Amino acid sequence: MGVFDYIWMGVLAVFQGPELFSILGIPIPITVGMIFFGFLLGIMVGATPGMAGPVAMAISLPILISVFGYHPDALLPVMGFLIGIMKGATVGGAVPAILFNTPGTPDAYMTTLDGYPMTQRGKAKKALRVAHLSSVTGDTFSDLVLFICAPFLAILVEAYLDLPEKTALLILSLSFIAAVIGGSPAKGLISTGLGLLAVYVGTGEDFYPRLSMGSQELARRFPIATSVLGVLIIGAVFKGMDDIWRERRSKGTVEPLEQVGDQRLHWADVRRLSPYIARSAVIGTMIGALPGVGSTLAATIGYTLGKARHEKGPDKDKTPFGKGAMEGIASTEAANSSVSGANLIPVLSLGIPGNAAAVFLILAAESIGGFNPGPSVFKFSTDSVNTELVAAHALDGGHGPHPQTCPAAVGPVADADRNLCAGDPH
Amino acid sequence: MSSHSRSNLITGLVFLAFAALVAFIWVPLDVETGLVEKVRRRIMIGDALAPTVAAFFIGLGGLVLVLFERKAPDQPSVKLTNVAFVGIQIAILVIGFLIMLYAGPLAVSLFSGDTEYRLLRDTAPWKYVGYFLGGIFIVAGLISQSEGRLTLRSVVIAIGVVVALIIIYDVPFEDLLLPPNGDV
User: Fold this and answer.
1) Is the pLDDT of residue B23 over 90?
2) Which long-range contacts (CB under 8 A, 24 or more apart) does B109-117 make?
3) CA–CA distance, A290 with A69 (Å, rounded to integer)
4) Which of A379, A424, B59, B139 has its CA 20 to 30 A from that of A305?
5) What is the DSSP string of B117-144?
6) A87 touches A344 (CB < 8 A)
7) Is residue A410 part of a domain?
8) How many helices (H) and strands (E) does chain A have?
9) Angle between the A53-68 and A75-100 helix axes, to the nearest 10 degrees?
10) How far apart are CA A94 and CA B24, in angstroms?
11) ipTM
12) Tell me: the pLDDT tens digits for A380-410?
């Protein structure tokens, strides 16, 4: 069996699976249906501040397993649903970031920097369209890379990234936080230090959980996802309330934001955004392929490089980054969305999760059985069929059906269209 | 915003002191192993190293804030209105949590005779009383604070929010307790 036979078998496994229901006599395979529902749920969850993708995955997993049971046939529908949530949440996370200055997911934080200023200028719809276009493009690119390169990338990552390189990568990400977040490097450093201190509580090699002050609660550590979202969301909510309160005190009333001017995304805009989207998609895919680093770093690097490019550009009367530049939204969204496809490379091939969402995929695979993420997955045996590789390609291919397959990504009814199309096969 | 604000200086000093507290008091007293450990002539990283590095980051940030960013423009300053805002917010949250904690037991003692609330904490409708009333108070209170008036609409929104949260978190799960029922 060659590489393409495996890919083809994977695709068939998705589309020839048991029938969920049929529309006009055309059977809808259960895996495609589950991806569609997962994707819709993901968008809703991502758009709700305080409910990140991992939360929805954590709630769904036990329910899914109790519905589908513990046998290998359950693998594709369950993983499809979870991957649908993972991707939908990234797309949905941009919505509250743009409309309310509150990132729905941590990786959408950088989207607030330009998205919310655009809303304040009355360009919310346009900002949302830019976010969706970039997200969809980045994600498609990442999926293609996963589909084609996963086996080779897996071998490369394994061969060249040892502990020193991974440590260097982590130091790089810490420096990025200090340099990029907010206007003050000193406050960035302090935030980095406080974050590090918080994750060290209750951990360590020794028998006694360090910094726990003898308390059982502290010894159980701070739950990371909850803490991160709490800091980001509660901070943003209180800041927003304070702003409204102050505005009312100074003016007597709160002015609703009016949507003004041309909200459509023109071909010229797409052309202007495409270098930013392309650069961020490549960055996001590369970062996604590395084990242990997630979409927040990709978003940060994508945004920073986009900003540097934007400042050097020839156009003098452009909107700067941080003041409502479309390019800022595009750079961030393309980067964080393109992580999600490539992120499955370390998950499937090494069994190392790149982010919290991937942890649930591994958990699902291990609970259901029949698929053990790890180096054995990508062994192309020619004499016998490697069923794990078929499953891996089924997952690659299965998580492809996404809004990107819809051509009307920039039209006025794009949102509704794309959601409807999300369940369609390629 | 005021250019004469000293908030960066004060923040920097506070974090310098905090970093010193972490590095010289909290870490030595609350971590069993040192910065590095020597086990069978091999040097290993001790549990104290990572938190000390974190303290170093915090201290460095504080130092940069004091030395180089002391006179940075656009520093926020704390005014009486900010204090009032935070004060009202804390009051709403505290009262809301108290209602959440005590409304259930009160309802049980008024309408259910001699049964203890602890025994009914997973029984409808008693388990919803505290969460429902306290949640409505918090949500409606915070909306009213932002709007500067109490409207029927904010109360209706609050009821909707609390009911939606109950439907999401309580109805599908048999072994999940709504607040405050896990702590009574």
Assistant:
1) yes
2) B117/B184
3) 32
4) B59
5) GGGGTTSTTHHHHHHHHHHHHHHHHHHH
6) no
7) yes
8) 18, 2
9) 160
10) 43
11) 0.80
12) 554 444 555 555 555 544 444 333 333 333 3
Tens-place pLDDT, residues A182-191? 567 888 889 8
Query: Which of A356, A386, A360, A363 shows the shortest CA–CA distance to A5?
Result: A386
The residues, any chain, with a CB within 8 Å of residue A190's CB and separated by 6 or more, are B15, B57, B58, B61, B62, B65
Question: How many domains is chain A built from?
Answer: 1
Q: Do B51 and A246 touch (CB under 8 A)?
A: no
Contacts 24+ apart (CB under 8 A), A250-257: A254/B146, A254/B147, A257/A119, A257/A120, A257/A122, A257/A124
Rounded to whole angstroms, the Cα distance separating A222 from A218 reads 7
For residue A426, is it within any domain? Answer: no
What token pair was written down for A319?
A: 């909107």
Q: Please check whether residue A252 lies inside any domain of the structure.
A: yes
Q: Which residues of A touch B59 (CB under 8 A)?
A: 193
Q: Which residues of A touch B19 (CB under 8 A)?
A: 193
**What pTM value is reported for the model?**
0.57
How many residues comprise chain A?
426
Residue A40 domain-assigned (yes or no): yes
B147 touches chain A (CB under 8 A): yes
Interface test with B, best of A189, A206, A212 (most B CBs within 10 A): A189
- Quick one: how far is CA A54 from the chain centroid? 11
